[in-house]
Amino acid sequence: MAILLTGGAGFIGSHTAVELLCAGYEVVIADDLSNSDASVIDRIETITGRRPAFYRINVADRAALETVFSAEAIDAVIHFAGFKAVGESVEKPLAYYRNNLDSALTVLEAMQAHGCARFIFSSSATVYGLTEQIPYTEQTERRGCTNPYGWTKYMIEQILQDAAAADGDLAVVLLRYFNPVGAHPSGLLGEKPSGVPNNLMPYVTQVACGIRTHLSVFGNDYPTPDGTGVRDYIHVQDLAQGHVAAYRYILEHKGCEAFNLGTGKGYSVLELVHTFERVNGMKIPYQIAPRRAGDIAMYYAAPDKAAAELGWRACKTLEDMCRDAWRWQCRLQADEET
Ligand code: UD1
Questions:
Q1: 299 CA to centre of ligand 1 in angstroms
Q2: Which tens digits make up the pLDDT trace of 92-128?
């Protein structure tokens, strides 16, 4: 039996494929490569010594998905496929709702048709929205989202809760990621932002290698220890291992459960920048800029439920995240120059 990773060639999907293969599970990847490339499959094989089955398809295409479910014995699906840029979702809301909702529904319908009843969803802490209760626990009241990308996560969570309530055989885990950063320690896998990065760590690594002149720090007047925004950064390899733990959990549990995947520790923008400078021995030029619309001052996870029920905790440090992110950026540069 195999685990199907939709969007498995992407940043988090590829790291999860590695961890599942290393744990001895069979992996099938379905990805249209719209935000990744086929070399990722080779790199997964280089790291693990095992090659996942790969289908280049859009999972919102039911006929194409049917070929995967007919050819492979799929025991569970981890659904990563989806559009994920917050700013773009504000500009193109219909594209985001159409793509993200369609792909989730199509995967669920194909699973139902083939008697596959285990679904792990790549959700986000963005579903907690504008709540002021910190740290976020899975019970924290959700007060709506700040952008269409977030709403698609929120809506898919609702769809999954309803589907699990209606079908007693269905097992669903909602994984709410905090801020995934870093890269595989081998330097072979990482995030490849297209265009100007929106997120902090890829922006910092591009400043470090001279693609950008300086970082703009969005606001230094927040009610946080140094005035800059505080987030719960989590190493992508820790996050990937959280998926392995969720798969083991879902083998034993029915119904729908949400888990935070974060470290439980918040770091400010400037703490991240200074840690990056220290561990990589360089200066990151930055300027204080106005607050970014839609940002909130501070949030981080209460990771206790995942520890108690999944037996999982993040163990990598901010230093590890900065070191691995920089190694990956150097690799990207070297690849581009050859
Ligand atoms: C955003 C999304 C989140 C998504 C995450 C991916 C929302 C509200 N947020 O989180 O859903 O999972 O990206 O990692 O939907 N910053 C700068 N300068 C920059 C870039 C960022 O100062 O050039 C600051 C931000 O103001 C913030 C922190 O760095 O305080 C982190 O920002 P970012 O990496 O974009 O992540 P979030 O906005 O927290």
A1: 11
A2: 999 999 999 999 999 999 999 999 999 999 999 999 9
Instruction: Look at residue 26 and give its three-state secondary structure.
Output: strand
E strand spans, the chain: 2-6, 26-30, 53-55, 74-79, 118-124, 171-177, 179-181, 215-218, 230-231, 233-235, 255-261, 267-268, 286-289
Cβ burial 100-136 (10 Å sphere, 16+ → b, else e): bbbbbebbbebbeebebbbbbbbbbbbbbbeeeebbb
Comparison of pLDDT for 293 and 150, the residue scoring more: 150
Q: Taking the CB of residue 16, how many other CB atoms lie within 10 A of it?
A: 31
Strand 179-181 with 118-124, pairing:
unpaired
Ligand 1 pocket test: pick from 175, 199, 239, 274 the residue with the most ligand atoms within 8 Å of its Cβ: 199
Answer yes or no: is pLDDT of 336 > 90.
no
